[in-house]
Recover the amino acids of this structure.
């Protein structure tokens, strides 16, 4: 089955994704599909559930304000937040929730533990926008969407947009 970008309220977006245990498992196809789709839509990050695969794999653009270059997009397997400090409020959007934007409070700095494609251990600190991308993408692995983290008042303002997306999803499934 070919992978494509899943749009809210696709149920795969609400599933808790599974750890990758076996690095001999063929991750290459999954990651290259993720890279292709991220490049097509021009986002700053992508989680495997967003293309219908409930596994703990994310892509993050490490220099999100810079020019889009393939080598800037890095893959992280089984990423975890080991520590989070500070706070930062910024506007977020999500490729899986088109046209919806809203302010979300996040940690300003997160310590990340993950593995690379070869299973090599990685430990590092992410700051500012990159830190937000990690938090947003790791949330996807737990079935959490950025809209869940908006204030109650803001949630009301986007509720009709979410309702429209639900309607469209139902209609597309029938056709
Ligand atoms: Zn997202």
């Amino acid at each position: 089955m070919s992978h494509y970008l899943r749009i809210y309220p696709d149920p795969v977006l609400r599933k808790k994704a599974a750890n990758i245990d076996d690095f001999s498992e063929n991750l290459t196809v999954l990651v290259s599909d993720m890279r292709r789709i991220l490049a097509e839509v021009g986002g700053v990050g992508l989680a495997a559930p967003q293309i219908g695969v409930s596994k703990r794999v994310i892509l993050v653009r490490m220099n999100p304000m810079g020019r889009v270059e393939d080598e800037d997009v890095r893959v992280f397997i089984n990423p975890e937040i080991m520590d989070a400090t500070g706070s930062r409020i910024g506007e977020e959007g999500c490729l899986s929730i088109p046209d919806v934007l809203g302010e979300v409070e996040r940690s300003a700095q997160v310590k990340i533990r993950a593995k690379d494609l070869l299973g090599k251990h990685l430990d590092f600190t992410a700051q500012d926008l990159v830190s937000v991308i990690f938090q947003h993408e790791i949330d996807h692995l737990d079935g959490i969407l950025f809209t869940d983290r908006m204030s109650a008042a803001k949630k009301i303002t986007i509720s009709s947009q979410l309702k429209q997306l639900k309607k469209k999803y139902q209609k597309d499934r029938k056709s």
Remarks:
- Helices lie at 28-41, 128-141, 152-174.
- The two ends are 19 Å apart (CA to CA).
- Residues 12 and 52 are 6 Å apart (CA to CA).
- The chain has one domain: 11-174.
